[in-house]
TrEMBL record:
SMART domains the record matches: PKS_ER (SM00829)
Record keywords, A-Z: NADP, Oxidoreductase
Boundaries of every Enoyl reductase (ER) domain copy: 18-333
GO molecular function terms listed in the Swiss-Prot or TrEMBL record: NADPH binding; oxidoreductase activity, acting on NAD(P)H
Family annotation (CDD domains): ETR_like_1 (cd08291)
Name of the featured protein: NADH oxidase
Species for this entry: Bradyrhizobium jicamae
SUPFAM superfamilies registered for this protein in UniProt: GroES-like, NAD(P)-binding Rossmann-fold domains
Alphabetized InterPro entries for the sequence: ER, GroES-like_sf, NAD(P)-bd_dom_sf
Length: 378
């Protein structure tokens, strides 16, 4: 085992030539300041938000492997249209990985830092696809006894996003919500939160297999967007739950429009009087992902009382402030093995993360294909 003074880190580089390069670099581990600790990273998930930086819209059909088994290099072509959006990152070698967990092996001089020595902690702050991470005490959370790094690796992005959705629902005066790509790890957490908190949730999935996953954990309203009866099924679920806010992970295509149309149909079924401007029930779709990169199509058959916007976790957390963030973090910590448990299909080393066969699986972002990286895997 290394002394932790330096370690491997996964880097993503987009060259001005239009070539994306993924590689491993040996980087020194910064000495911890008073309020910092050094963590040996043992678990860090590959989330869609990580793939946005790591690979983005690169054409992986052009990808090729070079280098050695210890130091693999992946190169792929970035489409010209994407290059224009990414001018700010050209020719910069960037670290990746939003969140992770591991063991504190060195600390700064503050009491709060020293108290974490030898403890298993989870972290947020980027650059997690690395063997050793120097990080501020305020960006780590000590994991409860009996919790492994793998248990705590996905403690931030998905759990706080799911909690952020129900918080946003309450703050904007809605009583129930709709979620797409609903059988994902995040979607399963959201179901557990809503069941526990008594919130109506309409789940939109794309297959019977995904519906089965949700029914097994107690989901009541699950509709399949590929079924001929989709719009009718969705409208019926909206009538029953009264859901008027949706969080959409798909982004592209017609789904957001279909949700708003069904919300309007549901509102009209319970309306007391007709209005030529549509119902006065406010309907909101927040797009928080782009599993479909096509344009979002709106066929405005849902009156004039509606909104479509973007939703991101970080601005939401900034809005609610430190005390509320602390409350949400505490809930995550106490329910890590239940409500907020994540499931992984494969644990890979940094080198294995850069194998084309593995990239082909995790870059599809499919439900039930979540990868966990252990940078210190032997």
């Amino acid at each position: 085992m290394s002394d932790g003074n330096s370690g491997l880190q996964l880097r993503t580089l987009l060259k001005k030539s239009g070539e994306l390069e993924l590689s491993l670099a040996n980087v020194p581990t910064p000495e911890p300041a008073d309020d910092e600790v050094v963590v040996r990273v043992e678990a860090t998930p590959i989330n869609p938000s990580d793939l946005g930086l790591l690979i983005g819209p690169a054409d992986m059909s052009t990808a090729r492997e070079s280098g050695s088994s210890d130091a693999p290099v992946i190169t792929a072509k970035m489409p010209d249209a994407a290059m224009r959006m990414m001018a700010a990152r050209l020719d910069q070698s960037l670290p990746a990985g939003n969140e992770g967990a591991g063991v504190v092996i060195r600390t700064g001089s503050s009491d709060a830092a020293k108290a974490l020595m030898g403890k298993t902690v989870s972290m947020i702050g980027g650059a997690m696809y690395t063997q050793y991470r120097t990080i501020r005490v305020r960006d780590v959370m000590e994991l409860p006894d009996g919790t492994t790094a793998a248990d705590g690796a996905s403690w931030f992005v998905n759990p706080l996003t799911a909690l952020g959705m129900t918080e946003t629902m309450r703050r904007e005066n809605h009583k129930a919500l709709v979620h797409t790509a609903a059988a994902s790890n995040l979607g399963q957490m959201l179901n557990k939160i809503c069941i526990k908190d008594g919130i109506g949730l309409v789940n939109i999935v794309r297959s019977k297999e995904q519906a089965d996953i949700l029914h097994q954990i107690g989901a009541k309203y699950v509709v399949d967007s590929t079924a001929p009866s989709f719009m009718e099924d969705l409208t019926n679920a909206l009538v029953e739950t009264g859901a008027t806010i949706a969080f959409d992970a798909i982004g592209g295509g017609k789904l957001a429009s279909q949700i708003l149309t069904s919300m309007e149909m549901a509102a009209n079924k319970t309306a007391k009087e007709y209005s030529r401007y549509g119902s006065n029930v406010y309907k909101q779709v927040y797009i928080y992902g782009s599993l479909d990169n096509r344009p979002t199509e709106l066929s405005r058959a849902f009156g004039l009382t509606w909104g479509v916007g973007g939703w991101l976790l970080t601005p939401f957390l900034q809005k609610i402030g430190p005390a509320e963030i602390g409350r949400l973090r505490q809930r995550v910590a106490s329910e890590l093995k239940t409500t907020f448990a994540s499931h992984y299909t494969q644990v890979v080393s940094l080198q294995e993360t850069l194998q084309l066969s593995n990239i082909a699986v995790y870059n599809k972002r499919s439900t039930g294909e979540k990868f966990l990286i252990n940078p210190n895997k032997g």
